[in-house]
Amino acid sequence: MRVPLSWLREYVDLPAEVGGREVATRLIAAGLEVELVERLGADLTGPLVVGQVLAIEELTEFKKPIRYCQVDVGEANGTGQPQNIVCGARNFAVGDKVVVVLPGAVLPGGFKISARKTYGHLSEGMICSTRELGVGDDHDGILVLPPEHEAGTDAIALLELLDEVLDIAVTTDRGYCLSMRGVAREAATAFGLPLRDPALLDVPAADGAGYPVRIEDEAACDRFVARTVTGVRPDARSPIWLQRRLQKSGLRPISLPVDITNYVMLELGQPLHAYDHSRLAGPIVVRRAAAGERLTTLDNVGRTLHGDDLVIADDRGPIGLAGVMGGAETEIADAPPVERSPLAPEGTTDIVIEAAHFDPVTVARAARRHRLGSEAARRFERGVDPQAAGAAAQRAVDLLVLLGGGTAGAGVTDLGTPAPPATVELRADHPDRVAGVAYGREVVVRRLQEVGCTVTGTDLLAVTAPSWRPDLTDPNDLAEEVLRLEGYEALPATLPRPPAGRGLTEGQRLRRRVGRALAGAGYVETLNYPFVGEKSWDGLGLPADDPRRQAVRLANPLSEEEPLLRTTLLPGLLDALRRNHGRGSQDLALFETGLVFRPTGRETAPVRPPVTRRPTDEEIAALDASLPPQPRRVAVVLAGAREPAGWWGSGRPAEWADAIEAARVVAREAGVELIVERDQHAPWHPGRCAALRVRLDGERRLVGHAGELHPRVVKALGLPERACAMELDLDVLQAAGGGPVAGPAISTFPVATQDVALVVDNAVPAAEVEAALRAGAGELLESVRLFDVFTGEQLGAGRKSLAYALRFRATDRTLTADEATAAREAAVATAISRTGATLRGA
């Protein structure tokens, strides 16, 4: 909403020294968003005057038409003699009044005017177009003024070229500020000054003699006012002051009736529409459109209407899309030819004014359905004052009579009964409790009355919102009005005081430890959206019956290509891997922790609790029952070099073992020992995939998978070759960990190291051999590490050698060689009995 300061002063007596910036500051403090204060004419200096064309000499010896004009500028040039001016425009004639800028003046943009010789003649100034004056975009023709202005009159004051305009971004809850009336009310409150409400007019009551109107859908149109004006001069034009106010407000002058409806809309916030009385056939009807009906709107576009569209119709059919745009068949016909529809007749003398109140949702849906934004729709969809319709119609009638020479029709049509504003109960201290400031009842009542509310009561206030504030429906809405008018800057800045004895939960500590550990291992954390599509499952090669394909579908997804919630972290991580690799990053190690959503099919239908009170325990339980399980997981992806090459060596590429090691890093932070087993599970390579398990409640629980991705998955997703991935369930890991991780005991006694090499069948997992060694070594064993795997002819076909380093240590003494050897032999004996191993070299 563009608000000229000169227009605003008509309704609020702002002090003369108060400029646009101070007004903007006050309005911003009151909660409005003033984006810009534009100073019109700031770089304009005179003399700029009205001139009358006395004579025109056509200069034909040049390539384009040039005119040498004599213009009377009165005494503005100090001599009283006509000015000789060269001009190329041709839309004016002898006797016309024009705007003349004399030598010494400066036009907008720093364009200095001086007398100069051009086209063989001395040009003493310039005859101006609207663009040169900064009042419009028309540069093709000269601005021709009405004949009543005398030559020599100051055109700067006449055209109101010096002004300040506030550009306000009106939010959806402050639709009343899409009018001078609404902004003036805010300015009056901000400066503590009285308001001259332009809607306070004497409006005649409905008498049944006005233009006939019938409302068939009262839910979509609860008020319709129709007034008639006859005998309007078709050649009547909008006065300069009206045109300039429209231009400053961002609208283009068109014709007197249209300009008046736009002017009243800007003034009072009530959109109006003017019909050519002679083009109406029968009574005006407000109804829903029939499917397939067509309407040619004022922009000369034929539109097929929808059954939910609310239309204004007569006996022939729709003549307007209610609250959005009128139809071309009943358009006022006295606009210039370039603006007039070819369907309109020449010259309109009798006009029917419509001022109605339409349902905001109906108007908003129609405007979006037809992609037809308009100033009227913009106001209706934010809420228009239903009580202003009569005053707006009366204001338009008065201006048509005053400026167009018309006669107001005796009849007044006023149908419908808008719903009265709701009364809200508000405790007098409620704003105090919301703000943490003691305002007191007197301040609360005064501020609500300044907004326009009616307030009764003592401790419990009964507050009735004004008709122009449909957004005030809740005690917190009223409290916000008190807070914003008292000033948000006056609110104290206090930090919430957390309850004593609370801190991070064990789950939060685990997630932080895991993040630090993975970052320390060289991984970079990424945060991905939890939205996926069916193509994600196809790219991962998931079977049709895979439970990961059973996902929650969003009712209103951000993208139709990703309407599902993820059931695994891998799609987002792999997409980040592909994107970074495509942008030149070759060596990548990424990780993410987050929730996945795994519906079971047993979820109940969600309930919708009321917003007027806290949900009951039963309602909260019903909401919880409707939610799918949401386990928290951690996943990593790797590609490229795990150990970079350099002067120290050739480096090493990332492989499946690094993904398993990342899982062990996570498990160590939870205090859990992972059990690693061979497995086949999409999207991993069947020969390089490990199932990861933990012991929980006496059984081995699957906690995730790790390994190298399947080559088909790598190709389908456009990933680097030999990409690897790992995913673990953090919730299961936390449960298996059994609480906070205890710090390791540090022994002061030396370690005894014993190596052992065992030959087993290729089918025997190394983890099974390691578990047997641990079981047999007893309490003295500190760690087991596999440091070599060997296969060869000397071992025989289908056999492999596993070499382990066993570390023994006692907490209270230095171990003897015999004790370490005995522990080693016990470990070997257990491994031989459990796995069928043989001691290499024996």
TrEMBL record:
Cofactor note: Binds 2 magnesium ions per tetramer.
Family in the record: Belongs to the phenylalanyl-tRNA synthetase beta subunit family. Type 1 subfamily.
Origin: domain of life: Bacteria
Subunit structure: Tetramer of two alpha and two beta subunits.
UniProt xrefs under InterPro entries: aa-tRNA-synth_II/BPL/LPL (IPR045864), B3/B4_tRNA-bd (IPR005146), DNA-bd_dom_put_sf (IPR009061), Fdx_antiC-bd (IPR005121), Fdx_antiC-bd_sf (IPR036690), NA-bd_OB-fold (IPR012340), Phe-tRNA-ligase_IIc_bsu (IPR045060), Phe-tRNA-ligase_IIc_bsu_bact (IPR004532)
Keyword Nucleus part of the UniProt annotation: no
Origin species: Streptomyces chisholmiae
Compartments where found: Cytoplasm
Catalytic activity: tRNA(Phe) + L-phenylalanine + ATP = L-phenylalanyl-tRNA(Phe) + AMP + diphosphate + H(+)
Recorded GO MF terms: phenylalanine-tRNA ligase activity
Record keywords: Aminoacyl-tRNA synthetase, ATP-binding, Cytoplasm, Ligase, Magnesium, Metal-binding, Nucleotide-binding, Protein biosynthesis, RNA-binding, tRNA-binding
Cofactor: Mg(2+)
Keyword NAD: no
Protein name: Phenylalanine--tRNA ligase beta subunit
Binding, Mg(2+): D471, D477, E480, E481
The protein's Enzyme Commission number: 6.1.1.20
Major location category of this protein: cytoplasm
Residues in B5 domain copies: 419-493
PROSITE patterns in UniProt: B5 (PS51483), FDX_ACB (PS51447), TRBD (PS50886)
Domain FDX-ACB: 747-840
Domain called TRNA-binding: residue spans: 42-156
SUPFAM superfamilies named among the record's database cross-references: Anticodon-binding domain of PheRS, Class II aaRS and biotin synthetases, Nucleic acid-binding proteins, PheT/TilS domain, Putative DNA-binding domain
